[in-house]
Design brief:
The protein is α+β, with helices and mostly antiparallel strands. Helix content is 19%, strand content 31%. A hairpin with a 3-residue loop joins strand 1 and strand 2.
């Protein structure tokens, strides 16, 4: 597997994470010996130690920033903390989602005990009805959505779309098992349809305005073509 580099300078490396790959192994992780992490892949190809600046779920594909020195991490993390960086995700959800919606629902924190405020802005970009039955209906409906998280809670986008009654396709935890099964049977799509597509921010060292774009993985490209949906990343290139 080759590393997909999006942007690189003396401070950071920005890469496109594949589906179903951990960013790094947790301490005491059982899968260290058998599974290559994104961090290991990047370090192997670049020949240097790298440090994740933010997180991305194993099942989510897309853009992630890695620092080239440990002391660089804080200045980029401050962009997230001060909401000076905009993250744009794209997803495919069950049903016809609303044209615009602000989802304001608390999400459990890392300790799994206390709920924390979480806000996501959802926009529907396109939709489709397929003549493929999924119980209990004779047809199936799906929407292409843009998701802008205004907070950074664990599984926030997956939980918010589920709570909004439009779960993400391919989500084994929060999704719809019948629709997921149909996607596998009819199209061979087995991955979560959630992609971190765009990061917008001013570089804290150079003050350069950056628009970093992560291309969609193979399943996404096939789905967009089959559903006749316009690639939403096109407006950023």
């Amino acid at each position: 597997m080759n590393l997909q580099v999006i942007y690189e300078d003396q401070w950071i490396l920005c890469v496109n994470k594949p589906n179903n790959m951990v960013v790094h192994h947790a301490y005491f992780s059982r899968n260290v010996a058998s599974e290559l992490s994104l961090l290991q892949l990047a370090e192997n190809e670049k020949g240097m130690k790298l440090y994740p600046i933010h997180r991305l779920d194993r099942k989510t594909s897309g853009i992630i920033l890695l620092a080239k020195q440990k002391e660089y991490v804080a200045m980029f993390q401050q962009l997230f903390e001060k909401k000076q960086i905009e993250k744009k995700y794209f997803g495919v959800v069950r049903g016809f989602s609303p044209e615009k919606k602000i989802i304001d629902l608390p999400v459990k924190g890392k300790d799994k005990k206390k709920h924390k405020n979480a806000i996501t802005h959802l926009s529907t970009l396109d939709s489709i009805t397929l003549n493929i039955p999924v119980k209990p209906y004779d047809t199936s409906r799906y929407s292409l959505v843009e998701l802008l998280p205004k907070t950074g809670r664990t599984h926030q986008l997956r939980i918010h779309t589920y709570k909004n009654n439009h779960p993400l396709l391919g989500d084994s935890k929060y999704g719809d098992i019948n629709h997921n099964a149909m996607f596998v049977k009819e199209f061979g799509f087995q991955h979560l349809f959630l992609h971190a597509g765009v990061l917008l921010f001013n570089h804290p060292k150079t003050n350069q305005e950056l628009c970093l774009i992560a291309n969609f993985p193979k399943d996404w490209c096939t789905l967009l073509k089959n559903f006749n949906w316009k690639n939403p990343l096109g407006k950023y290139t």
